[in-house]
Amino acid sequence: MLDPPAAWAHTWLHRFSVRRRAAQAFADTWAAEVTLRRRHGFVVHYGLLEATDEPKFTALYSHAEDAAGATLATDPDWAELTAARAPLAFRNVLIRPVRVEALPPAGTAPDRLAILRRYSIVGDWGEFLGIWRRIVPVRQRHGFRLLFAVADEPTSMFTWAFDFAGEWADFAAAQRPYYADPDRVALRGVIDYLADYSVAPARLLPA
């Protein structure tokens, strides 16, 4: 688990829907966004495009300044990119300031599928996180590599992602040994803290 370096003290999770038939065209614009954000001092950690019939796009990025987006918004190249993307995505953009709970050094793994998990938390956050931190090494022992985890306590939202070597059709079978592991069985109480949750396969876009 890594605390956010002072160089990027503020972190945001950016999420919106992409038009299904425009998913690849949208993915093709991601490199331009990474370039522009870096120009304005952002560290871009991840871009994930869900591989579903109604795809969502999730980006995780950080900056040293809380109001970093102000300079980006005035960049003509950003305005051009925003206009080019308008036909490709919906306007349901949600940007959450988040607290980083885990962000290991990123590695390139084009042959691995990302799995995005989103939890609506009830009860004590400290208790939930205490269980979740014990879950992570069990998952990793079964071949699921942690990508990141972030918390938005004011809205009771916890988002994390991991990857594995396989296709979405293989995921349920791949999880069976993990859920049967006695160390994971002992942590089944985590469900007490999940009012709701979603799990989706995602394409990891290079950042």
Structural features:
207 residues; alpha+beta; 7 helices; single chain; globular; eight-stranded antiparallel beta barrel
Can you walk me through this structure?
It is a single chain. This protein has 207 residues and is α+β, with helices and mostly antiparallel strands. The chain contains seven helices and eight strands. The chain has helices spanning 23-27, 30-39, 69-73, 76-85, 125-141, 168-180, 182-185, and strands at 10-17, 43-50, 56-63, 94-102, 113-121, 145-152, 157-164, 194-205. The protein has an eight-stranded antiparallel beta barrel. The radius of gyration is 17 Å and the shape is globular. The chain starts with 9 loop residues before the first strand and ends with a strand. The relative contact order is 0.20.
How is the biggest beta sheet arranged?
Answer: 8 strands, antiparallel, barrel
**What is the helix content?**
25-40%
The total strand number stands at 8
> Overall mean pLDDT score?
93
**What structural class do you assign from the helix and strand content?**
alpha+beta
Gross geometry: globular
Sheet-strand content, in percent, reads: 25-35%
| Number of helical regions | 7
What is the structure about, briefly put?
25% of the residues are buried. This protein has an 8-stranded antiparallel β-barrel.
Helices and strands in order, then pairings?
Blueprint: E1 10-17, H1 23-27, H2 30-39, E2 43-50, E3 56-63, H3 69-73, H4 76-85, E4 94-102, E5 113-121, H5 125-141, E6 145-152, E7 157-164, H6 168-180, H7 182-185, E8 194-205
Antiparallel strand pairs: 1-3, 1-4, 2-3, 2-8, 4-6, 5-7, 5-8, 6-7
